[in-house]
Design brief:
This protein is α/β, with parallel strands linked by helices. It contains eight helices and seven strands; from the N terminus they run βαβαβαβαβαβαααβ. It has a single domain, classed as Rossmann fold (3-Layer(aba) Sandwich). The chain is 42% helix and 15% strand.
Length: 252
């Protein structure tokens, strides 16, 4: 057995949005390695993630959905309930980050970035929290961003959405604490993912090393340990918090 594997999430049903690749795929894999049944939710095809999860011999469900759509979020929750009858963990990881100079920003782009990065978290929580309340136990982790601590430009809509995630996390934690449900946020540094590479930001990865205390380019696995803790029994007394898993690239 891989030394990082264990049964800390045995018997739990975990839902991860943005599961097709990058950080979402890494979260799905590690949750499964630690015993969870995983439902991946993404607008894209998830066969690579499915292969990693099924290799652990734990359960898997792929749900193709646009998490920024209320109808799709409700349908995804219905499919998860039909398959597993419960939801214990929700990791709101889906996100987009189109780089735009301010003079290039139009309202349609602004709305789409806010919808995918912030509205989707509200919609998925609205759809799945009722399943958590049934068992008086739940763990919600909302992915924000270490970019909030950086002066880097061309991300106005993205930073606005990710700042909103922190506020949403704090408010929801207060509303759900009485039901045995914790809500926390995790902020990665700029990470080597397919989305970052496709956006042509390999140079930004190299430049970000100047701001990091841990001098290496972050990989998706660098975020996962924090998510595993916040979705486990060990984090029962942690809620409403934002943890920056960012190599020391800024302190909150």
């Amino acid at each position: 057995m891989n030394p990082r594997e264990g049964d800390t999430h045995d018997g739990r049903v975990a839902v991860v949005t943005g599961a097709a690749r990058g950080i979402g795929r890494a979260i799905c894999q590690r949750l499964a390695e630690h015993g969870a049944t995983v439902a991946g939710v993404d607008i894209n095809e998830m066969s690579d993630t499915e292969g990693l999860v099924r290799s652990t011999e734990n359960g898997w469900l792929a749900v193709r959905a646009d998490v920024a759509s209320e109808e799709d979020a409700q349908r995804a929750a219905a499919e998860i309930e039909a398959a597993f009858g419960r939801c214990d963990i929700l990791v709101n990881n889906a996100g987009i980050y189109p780089y735009r100079d301010w003079d290039e920003m139009d309202f349609a782009t602004w709305r789409r970035v806010i919808s995918v990065n912030l509205d989707s978290q509200f919609l998925m929580c609205q759809a799945l929290v009722p399943l958590m309340k049934r068992n008086a136990w739940g763990r919600i982790v909302n992915i924000t961003s270490g970019s909030l601590l950086s002066p880097g430009g061309r991300l106005t809509a993205y930073k606005a959405a990710k700042a909103g995630v922190i506020g949403f996390t704090r408010g929801l934690a207060a509303d759900l604490g009485g039901y045995g449900i914790t809500v926390n946020a995790v902020g990665p540094a700029l990470t080597r993912t397919p989305g970052v590479i496709e956006a042509g930001n390999v140079g930004s990865l190299e430049n970000s090393l100047q701001r990091l205390i841990i001098k290496r380019i972050p990989e998706p696995d660098d975020v996962v340990g924090t998510v595993l803790f916040l979705t486990s029994e060990d984090s029962a007394f942690v809620t409403g918090q934002t943890i920056m898993a960012n190599g020391g690239g800024g302190f909150l």
